[in-house]
UniProtKB/TrEMBL annotation:
The lineage of its organism: Bacteria, Bacillati, Cyanobacteriota, Cyanophyceae, Gloeobacterales. SUPFAM superfamilies: TPR-like (SSF48452). This is Gll1889 protein. PANTHER family: KINESIN LIGHT CHAIN. Keywords: Coiled coil, Cytoplasm, Cytoskeleton, Microtubule, Motor protein, Repeat, TPR repeat. InterPro entries: CHAT_dom, Kinesin_light, TPR-like_helical_dom_sf, TPR_rpt. It comes from Gloeobacter violaceus (strain ATCC 29082 / PCC 7421). Residues 749-772 are annotated as: Disordered. GO terms for cellular component: kinesin complex; microtubule. Belongs to the kinesin light chain family. Gene3D superfamilies: Tetratricopeptide repeat domain. The keyword Coiled coil applies. PROSITE patterns: TPR.
Length: 999
């Protein structure tokens, strides 16, 4: 648990100003999101003028009693800032007594002394003593000035901070909001004083794990301050540092780092390299580096921080304890327990002396020592410290706070060390329940990239649950349910939340309020066009700048849409194993594959706690408990998959040769351990990792039959999709759209784009087996510039056949020059979408320095009319997966991309493939048929015709595809999986009611 420093604004009387207070915040390095309590020490700066409405002290004169009270207050503040609390207290008490005697107990000047004494108690963790003083000051001001006076905001803010610091968030929030409303009314919504209240309210949300609520408040506060002071002013440092800390908690380390660095640069420029406030940024940046594995740089910064604080405050200041603890944590992570222990103990001694035994930050130091004792095998010393910490945190923060999850996770690790796996499972279940509560709170209101980071930061608990079942409690049904439920709760979660959020926006926002969706689609199109075609028309520096601007614009629009979706979201019931099982057909079973890291009980240190990734599989039948098995090291299985695919892509290899042996070997590894379920005719497969790239239909069992011959197969990102697919879909708004055989040389309408230089090499456009030139393979994204493709006559015949077979009068058929990107983007929720054209997936290469390196959804797409001229209506004829996300396909029952590599993309653990399949799901389609490699034109046309005959006959989508694949495999010369194994069906597996599609 690293200790960060956040900054809150409180009102310190005597100097008569708002000031920022630096508060250590402990965060679990591996689970990261919980805010710790406070070793409270004020920093210098951010002083505002004394409020004009403060009543002057009557009869105050130099040398008088009131002048003496003011001097005592000032001296007390200085001693408090230096951590000399015992010396500060009598001065604060004397100042209060002097003012009470001179002015009476209800004078506003008395409220100032009450406030300062209360702050002293607060910083020492003596909250019970502080609260009545804050309340008395509040009552005095309300009587003197009225409930809406700006002076009231000071006391409301400080009392709210007290409640927040001891975890009483429900009591703190209305006070923060009331203080904010008073200041907005007094100063207007854009005043810097308002920004300070916004910062404090944002920190409250951050402390209780509501990151999506905190972010817009932090951003609004920053915008106000930047407008008022400029981007480099020292007052910007508080908001920037706290926003960076929020992103760290969220797992967004790439977002946090530049903000931490910017904060450091501002403070160094304002105060010089040795100022205590500079040390705050050094400390926080060091913790980030440690989290990212840059231990040497982290240690250097922590030592520099410690030197600054020791010089500024002396060796026994709470901030010195922060640096000592963080340095000790670095040693502990490396297994250097001898070096860590004295640092932990020195930090604890400082906190006990300055803050007391009950202060939350002192409790954190007990936990640090408990972790050390656990790693050294001293369990008797560790256990009572964990229990004490959990009891105090529950009392202070409640049962659902992220801190509690971290504490329970630590307790589970202790139970494992004590060889008490059943007790470890119970503690881990509680931790996972808390994490699920906070995921449900935050995921629906954030953009996809942030949600990926958030889930990744919680991976330790999920991996431990899987390892505990698979390696320690194999026969425990409770352990199996916990592990499988955890996998279902995490896999595909980001895709589901994003899909639901977009669906809510499309359904609930009227057309006149959907401009944000349109702006996002336009920005994605501009980015795709620039990256894929136009990079050669701009100087390199201008090109990089423009791409960066567009990427930022897309990200901001995505964030704004996430906020809008959160505002519309309805609370959904938690996913249960029972709900997934009830959604399975009676003759089906779900096979959930999952990548996990095995726990290493005897690891030398925390950094070695988890080993190299392994695959596991869980089988859930329609009736009965789940069964899970460990499948082996991911590295070995991935190597087998790559080797097998190399043989699958060569249709000239013998059917009983190496490809067949590898198919049997992979079946034995991946599915044989789950056998023993008679009556199962349909498998729902939820792959993970590189399993997403393999055709399960081509696996061969011991009896020599392929999976295609034994089962209908439906692919899912996660079994969590099944209950959602049970829900009724919105009705389509137009008839089927069939688009095929585009004229790649020209399009029907639209101004041509600027001419581009001829390609250095051209693709053949052929897709006739292994001998065909793979025009998209091994190209960088920008290398698509100038490439051309050849016509696909089979694709046009296929499109016409599909339209004829559907027999729906409202079907719209677009071929040749009419099959434009404009036409596709203009479609509004067609009942069915069929594309027969060229597809591409651009393999990853060394793209360092290339603008497109961070855009995986730009590496897959399809070619439409005018592709060779890069003119397709007013578009460019290249529809990327990034753009496909913005298609209006809400209510589209089925999308078929009869194109090369339409199901390929960048594999993201736990979230499937980042490509067209994901894009179509986000666009709203309920099911998809895609391909895993390049397919041959004529064979594909025949397969698709058979597939649609099956749909028309009433077969389910997965079964119709299976029958079409079996028919192709039975043809002479087409038995090799290359010809039929590329096609996969995902999503809704049931039959398509054609009468419904026809309106």
């Amino acid at each position: 648990m690293h200790i960060f420093c956040r900054q809150v604004y409180y009102y310190c009387e005597g100097r008569g100003s708002w000031r920022d207070m630096l508060l250590p915040v402990s965060l679990r390095c591996t689970a990261r999101r919980w805010a710790c309590a406070l070793s409270l020490v004020a920093s210098l700066g951010l002083v505002c003028p004394r409020s004009a409405w403060t009543q002057p002290a009557t009869a105050e004169a130099p040398g008088g009693e009131l002048a003496e009270a003011a001097r005592l207050d000032e001296q007390g503040v200085q001693l408090r800032e230096a951590g000399r609390y015992k010396e500060a207290q009598p001065l604060a008490e004397q100042a209060l007594a002097t003012r009470e005697k001179a002015l009476g107990p209800e004078h506003p000047e008395v409220a100032k002394s009450l406030n300062n004494l209360a702050l002293l108690y607060t910083e020492r963790g003596e909250y019970a003593e502080a609260e009545p003083l804050f309340r008395r000051a509040l009552a005095i001001r309300e009587k003197a000035f009225g409930p809406e006076h700006p002076e009231m905001a000071k006391s409301l803010n400080n009392l709210a901070l007290l409640y927040s610091e001891r975890g009483e968030y429900a009591e703190a929030e209305p006070l923060f909001r009331r203080a904010l409303a008073i200041r907005e009314k007094a100063f207007g919504p854009e005043h810097p004083e308002v920004a300070k209240n916004l910062n404090n309210l944002a920190l409250l949300y951050s402390e209780r794990g509501e990151y999506a609520e905190a972010e817009p408040l932090h951003k609004r506060a920053l915008a106000i301050e930047e407008k008022a002071f400029g981007p480099e002013h020292q007052k910007m440092a508080v908001g920037l540092g706290n926003l960076a800390l929020l992103y760290y908690r969220w797992g967004e380390y790439a977002e946090a780092e530049p903000l931490f660095k910017r904060t450091l640069a501002i403070l160094e420029k304002a105060f010089g390299p040795e100022h205590p406030r500079v040390a705050v940024s050094l400390n926080n940046l060091a913790n980030l580096y440690d989290r990212q594995g840059e231990n040497a740089e982290a240690e250097r910064l922590h030592k520099r921080t410690l030197a600054i604080w020791e010089k500024a405050f002396g060796p026994e200041h709470p901030r010195v304890a922060v640096s000592l603890s963080n340095l000790a944590l670095l040693h502990q992570e490396r297994g250097e327990y001898t070096e860590a222990e004295p640092l932990f103990k020195r930090a604890l001694a400082i906190k006990e002396k300055t803050l007391g035994l009950e202060h939350p930050d002192t409790v954190n130091s007990f936990v640090y020592l408990a972790n050390l004792y656990r790693e050294r095998g001293e369990y008797t010393e560790a256990e009572p410290l964990y229990k004490r910490a959990l009891a105090l945190w529950e009392k202070a923060f409640g049962t659902q706070h992220p801190k509690m999850a971290t504490g329970l996770y630590n307790l589970a690790l202790l139970r494992l060390r004590q060889d008490r796996p059943d007790d470890a499972r119970q503690a881990l279940r509680q931790a996972l329940d808390i994490q699920e509560h906070n995921l449900a709170l935050n995921l629906p209101a954030a953009a996809q990239q942030r949600n990926h980071a958030y889930l990744a930061s919680l991976k330790d608990t999920a991996d431990l649950a899987l390892w505990l079942h698979l390696h320690r409690l194999r026969d425990d049904p409770e352990a199996a349910r916990l592990a499988f439920s955890t996998a279902l709760g995490r896999k595909g979660r980001v895709l589901e939340e994003a899909t639901l959020a977009l669906a809510r926006l499309r359904r609930r926002l009227p057309p006149e309020r959907q401009q944000p969706l349109q702006r996002l689609a336009a920005a994605r199109t501009q980015l795709a066009t620039l990256v894929l075609q136009n990079s050669v028309t701009l100087p390199p520096e201008q090109y990089r700048t423009r791409v960066s601007e567009l990427r930022t614009q897309v990200r901001q629009l995505e964030d704004n849409l996430a906020d809008a979706g959160a505002g519309l979201r309805a609370l959904t019931r938690p996913l249960t194993l029972q709900a997934v099982q009830q959604a399975l057909p009676k003759d089906a079973a779900l096979v959930e594959f999952v990548l996990y890291r095995p726990f290493e009980p005897k690891a030398a240190g925390p950094a070695q706690r988890f080993g190299p990734p392994r695959y596991a599989a869980y089988l859930l039948p329609a009736v009965g408990p789940p069964r899970g098995v460990d499948l082996g090291e991911a590295k070995q299985i991935d190597a087998l998959i790559r080797y097998w695919r190399s043989w699958l892509l060569d249709p000239t290899s013998p059917g009983t040769g190496r490809a067949d042996k590898l198919a049997r070997q992979l079946h034995q590894k991946l599915l044989a351990p789950l056998q023993g379920n008679p009556g199962v005719k349909h498998l729902f497969l939820a792959p993970d990792g590189q399993l997403n790239t393999m055709p399960f239909a081509a696996l061969v069992a011991q009896d020599g039959r392929s999976l295609l011959q034994r089962y209908a197969l439906t692919y899912l990102v996660s079994g969590r999709e099944l209950p959602r697919l049970e829900q009724a879909a919105p009705a389509p708004r137009s008839g089927p759209l069939v688009l095929g055989g585009p004229d790649f040389a020209r399009a029907a309408a639209g101004p041509p784009l600027a001419s581009r230089p001829a390609a250095e090499r051209r693709a053949t456009g052929e897709s006739t087996g292994a001998a065909a030139a793979r025009w998209g393979e091994n190209l960088r994204s920008a290398a698509l510039t100038g490439f051309t493709v050849r016509p696909l006559p089979g694709a046009e015949r296929e499109a016409r056949a599909v339209a004829r077979l559907l027999g729906i009068p409202s079907t719209r058929l677009l071929t040749g020059a009419l099959a434009t990107e404009n036409a596709l983007k203009a479609a509004r929720s067609p009942a069915l979408l069929h594309l027969a054209t060229h597809g591409f997936f651009l393999q990853e290469r060394d793209t360092r320095g290339e603008a497109e390196a961070q855009e995986p959804l730009l590496r897959s797409g399809v070619a439409l009319a005018g592709f060779n001229a890069r003119s397709s209506g007013s578009e460019d004829g290249v529809l990327t997966a990034l753009e496909a996300q913005g298609l209006d396909l809400e209510g589209t029952e089925l999308a078929v991309l009869s194109a090369c590599e339409s199901g390929v993309g960048l594999v993201l653990g736990g979230e499937g493939v980042q490509g067209l399949r994901r894009a179509l799901a986000l666009a709203g389609t309920r099911s998809q048929v895609l391909t895993l490699w390049q397919v041959e034109d004529r064979t594909t046309a025949k397969l698709m015709e058979r597939f649609y005959r099956g749909l028309v006959a009433g077969l389910g989508r997965s079964e119709a595809l299976r029958q079409a694949q079996l028919a192709v495999a039975a043809q002479q010369g087409r038995a090799h999986p290359y010809w039929w194994g590329s096609f996969t069906a995902s999503g809704d597996w049931r039959s398509v009611r054609l009468s419904k599609l026809g309106g």
